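Late entry, written up from scratch paper. The run itself happened at the end of the previous shift, but nothing got recorded in the book at the time, so transcribing now.
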Amino acid sequence: MAKKPNSSAALDFAFFNYLWAFYETNKGTIRKSYKELSKKFLDYNDPKNRPDAFLRRPQFEALETYIFLKEFLGNSKVEQIFEDWFESKNQFQGRKATGFINYDSLQGSLSFDDVLEVKNYQTVLKKMKDNSRSYPNYIFALTMGTGKTLLMATCIFYEFLLANKFPKDKRFCQNALIFAPDKTVLQSLREIETFDISKVVPKEYVGIFDANLKFHFLDEAGTSLSTIDGSKFNLVVSNTQKIILKRQHAEKTATQKLFENDQPDFGELTELLGDLGLPANEDDLKTNQRFEKLSRLPQLGIFVDEAHHSFGQALKKDMLGGTSKTDNSLRRTIDELAKNLEDANSHVVACFNYTGTPYVGKDVLPEVVYAFNLKNAIQERYLKSPEVNSYTTTRTEEFVKIAVKDFLEATQGLKPEGLLPKLAFFASTVEELTEELKPELERQLAEHGISADKILVNVGDTSHTSSDDIRNFNNLDVVGTEGSEKQFILLVNKGREGWNCRSLFGVAMYRSPKSKVFVLQATMRCLRSIGKQQYTGSIYLSKENYDILDTELQANFRMTASEFSDQGPKPKTMLNVQVREDVKIKLKHVKQTIKLKEKEFVKGTVLDLDPKNEEAWHELTSKYLIIQTTTTNLQANDFNTAQYTKSKDRTNEKEKVEYTSLSLVAEISRYLNLSPIKIERMLDQTKEGLESILFCVNQFNELLYDVVIPRLFTALYDQEIESETTEKEVQLIIPPAIGELSFYEIAEGKGGTSTYADTQEKYRDKSFNLDTYTFDSNPEYALFWDLLKDDDVEKIYFTGMFTDKSKTEFYFQYIDPDSYALRNYYPDFLVQLKNGQYIIVEVKGDHQYDDPIVLAKAKAAKEYASHSQIEYKMIKGTDANAHIYQQLLGRKVLPSHVSLIQ
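Output as recorded:
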């Protein structure tokens, strides 16, 4: 009997991990297909390239994934990406099998032996296809506190930047709609409008947004959308209920209308229909004015914030199964928007959902493309560390007494960023809050000598919450305000997404609310980070609420309550590394100065653009041709054997700029920084003449930048190169200047640690300018000991521990092949042989050996080092592990089966 597909295992398959692994492994190759502006945008936000970059690591990785989907995968639907990946075709052609060992950031059930069986593959693919829409649908799952809102804003700014540069490219959004699940999240989204765009957009492009970006916040029921039909760069933020389609209830009879009201009653549609008038019949889906205006915006991107909350219980149905024709959910609204835009010859570019977890119950949402989980956010200190306390058989009085006492003890003396730590009590009803919780809290505070003025009540009821209370509630994190001095917050149903209070250090909930997920949402409110260190978020729950939290954590984050409050793995061991010996090495630097000497332009200058000379013209332009080759009648067993082959030139289908004389002169003038009048006169004086050059450039735009501009430059200037060689003594390690101390604090590496004190005397004096070497990889560790014990080696220093020019002068500058930015490269080892020869050695993983960036580093290091007669060599990690290193020292490596005969 055939084995049935394991649907449970299939739905547990976290494809996003494999997608990220593919990107990480092939990043250099992938980036080659990106537009230069995309590369520049990524480099500007890369924390590794810019120490002061605004985005955190998970935000940047999500942005990398976003651009990877857009540029490399062509905005394809997830099911198409998954199918191509599984079958190793199209962009995934030739991909390597992926296995993972001890990769903590991965989520889902993965191991080295993971194999997605064909039957399970079909199950996952079917689920993806069942939920397929007319537009790509992606889910980015980043846990709370990691910055989903500003990540979403960054993605939108990227879209608008690229759409402005490439208006005909349908992959890029020219307008954006953000859906928020409720008013709380809607208000938190207002920070996008006041956000300093230059933090994530290169400063030279910020002016584009100042001139074009238009914000529309639909936070009131009566607010209409004032976008201009067909306009671009509108960013619309709306509560889902302000746009969502509703099905009209059955129309009332004339008699009902007469006796009940002089105006037709549309129930929940009353505020939505606006000026659209009466519905045609009871079955029509009605749209409000905002929906109609959105349908007239070109290339709309839809961004759903806090998607998990926004979809509520419907999320699983929306993500894992198709919606019906009668479904009135947000997903249905987006589908209708897409349909209307298609009818208007536009389209929804994609729907980007930003949620806190990739899971719904036991299932992994198949359309998740990036995930950063709660466990990692806590361990990497993006959140406070949770401490969960549960209490059995307590009454309200005892619960409040214990919670207040423990909280005051835990936060004594703390005032991060000048803010008092705050504790929020959640009541299940207003009556419970006013009649039980608030009186008891006042009594307990009096016991500790704390005024009742420190209490703030926000229940959404004007009889208990004044406008001053609302203002203070919004100012809890604003230093110097009355709100910031409040310390005990009493709430009813205010624990959902969007309420961001970083100075909230504790949450207490005794009675169980009606909504089980509310317990999870409320407890996580106190985990947002504050200050420069990781603080503790204290959670106080009744035993019943603790059990609910445990269930919800397992359902939404695949972790138990005990794992949630666990402090996680032991922090990295920090080593105090002392500088034993201030080693210096002399390096020669060659400074080249290129001087331009202007010369008179010679009338009749030849640019060698002659279409009449067919042979020379073909040689010049053949690389710009698009040739389609079609082969038919292939032999079944031999793809290379064919009977018929035909070719077709499709170059005329290339997208190109049609220059005029004026625009051509202007473009050349811009590059050469010369007067357009002078450029026009020069072009007329060439042998070809302006009209002929214009014809050639309009045939192949590439000729303008590859031929015309470079050859005009050569005709205008001579280059004189002057070289100056200087010798500089550089320090391998710059001793720290911290009082009387002379050590650096460094995290212990995974590859192993060696110390001067524990090394045999005959070896240790050959090395250890630092008293401790700690290695990132096993190959580095193995190579160090092989070279240290080798008789031909005089000295060996491990230099790969420091990648900061404030700590070492031993680095080389290179040009990044992707971004063309100038970067610093810090090699692994400096080796001195007995014959006096110096060698710089770099250990690289086999998969990185031919990476373009690695090769660019090697090229620059070789060039620099050669001026000082220093050799530069690389070794593969597998060779270093196998002790095959002799080639570094100029010795032959014997095959393993050959032995030396003395």
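Residues 591-722 form one domain.
(Scratch paper discarded after transcription.)
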